[in-house]
């Protein structure tokens, strides 16, 4: 919500793209664990060819409507190319990551990792030429709300994005989330998204419902307005503290 990431971007993007408003991400998904019929490449290709085929297909699908060629100022680009899941060996990881690096910085502005442990993140950071600038991980109690990964990201200037914030979340029923929702008269979903953002996390909003997306934004603006009111400061910091303790306790 501090940045807007779209789940199902339009097939074509109007040019010029307002870079401060709309961020487009795409992923390279290795075959491991995914149905081959859903993959945008032939699984008999080498790993680097799979990456190329996947990225080229994203760049083609996301080309600006006014673009007639793939060169010049209207060249399609994505803001971030994310490796969906780590590969099982260091050799495979390196092959995929170096191929991803070859698109940086023009066709792909940033590279990211998803579903990574601290160990994998640290290793990629150390061996890569183009460092990961984004991590996208599940927000859940089982990983201790990823505190170790988030700390590493903060220390290395890496954006930490969270998904799964609402899915089966026990936090929705927690006291600080409910208190903030009641205080600001917003939904518990928005209240939770807001509190997670205050932890330095970029929230991925999972709704497919336009109206819900709009109302989330309205409620979010309301929360920001209230947070800036001097008379709210004490209650606000108490809610934030209690939310922080809750994450630490459930970690
Ligand atoms: N990297 C990965 O491996 C990975 C894995 C999973 C998801 N993701 C990405 O993460 C993003 C978030 O998806 P998520 O499923 O994790 O989201 P989420 O925050 O866990 O939301 C889950 C569901 O909550 C419902 N919801 C109810 N009230 C809502 C409200 N006020 N605002 C928003 N949603 C509300 C939505 O269903 P309705 O559509 O019915 O509103 C939504 O689909 C997506 O872009 C997805 O592609 C990444």
Question: Layout of SSEs?
Answer:
Elements: E1 25-28, H1 47-61, E2 78-83, H2 90-101, E3 108-114, H3 118-127, E4 134-138, H4 147-155, E5 159-163, H5 175-184, H6 188-198, E6 202-203, H7 210-227, H8 233-250
The site of NADP nicotinamide-adenine-dinucleotide phosphate has 21 residues, from helix 6 and helix 7.
Plain-language structure description:
There is one protein chain. It is built from eight helices and six strands. It is an alpha/beta fold. It folds into two domains: 132 residues, NADP-dependent oxidoreductase domain (TIM Barrel, Alpha-Beta Barrel); 86 residues, no CATH class. It has a six-stranded parallel β-sheet with strand order 1-2-3-4-5-6, with helices on one face. The N terminus is likely disordered. NADP nicotinamide-adenine-dinucleotide phosphate binds next to helix 6 and helix 7.
List keywords for this structure.
binds NADP nicotinamide-adenine-dinucleotide phosphate; 2 domains; six-stranded parallel sheet; alpha/beta; 41% helix
Quick synopsis:
By secondary structure, this protein is an alpha/beta fold.
Oligomer: single chain
Which shape, going by the Cα principal axes? globular
Supply Rg: 20 Å
Structural class: alpha/beta
Whole-number mean pLDDT = 89
N/C terminus separation: 24 Å
Task: List low-confidence stretches.
Answer: 1-15
Order of helices and strands: EHEHEHEHEHHEHH
Query: Largest sheet, order of strands side by side?
Result: 1-2-3-4-5-6
CATH-level-4 superfamily name of the largest domain: NADP-dependent oxidoreductase domain
- Give the tally of β-strands: 6
């Amino acid at each position: 919500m501090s940045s807007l990431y779209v789940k199902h971007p339009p097939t074509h993007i109007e040019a010029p793209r307002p870079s401060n408003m709309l961020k487009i991400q795409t992923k390279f998904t290795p075959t491991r664990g995914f149905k081959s019929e859903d993959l945008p490449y032939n699984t008999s290709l080498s790993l680097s060819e799979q990456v190329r085929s996947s990225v080229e297909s994203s760049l083609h699908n996301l080309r600006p409507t006014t673009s007639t060629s793939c060169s010049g100022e209207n060249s399609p680009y994505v803001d971030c190319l994310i490796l969906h899941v780590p590969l099982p060996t260091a050799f495979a990881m390196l092959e995929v990551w170096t191929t991803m690096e070859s698109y940086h910085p023009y066709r792909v502005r940033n590279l990211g990792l998803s579903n990574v442990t601290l160990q994998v993140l640290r290793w990629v950071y150390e061996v890569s030429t183009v460092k990961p600038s984004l991590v996208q991980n599940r927000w859940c109690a089982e990983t201790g709300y990823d505190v170790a990964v988030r700390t590493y990201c903060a220390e290395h200037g890496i954006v930490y994005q969270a998904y799964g914030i609402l899915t089966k979340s026990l936090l929705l029923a927690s006291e600080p989330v409910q208190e903030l929702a009641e205080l600001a008269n917003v939904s518990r979903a928005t209240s939770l998204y807001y509190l997670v953002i205050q932890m330095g996390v970029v929230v991925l909003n999972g709704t497919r419902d336009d109206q819900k997306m709009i109302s989330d934004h309205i409620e979010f603006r309301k929360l920001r307005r209230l947070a800036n009111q001097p008379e709210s400061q004490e209650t606000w910091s108490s809610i934030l503290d209690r939310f922080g303790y809750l994450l630490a306790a459930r970690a």
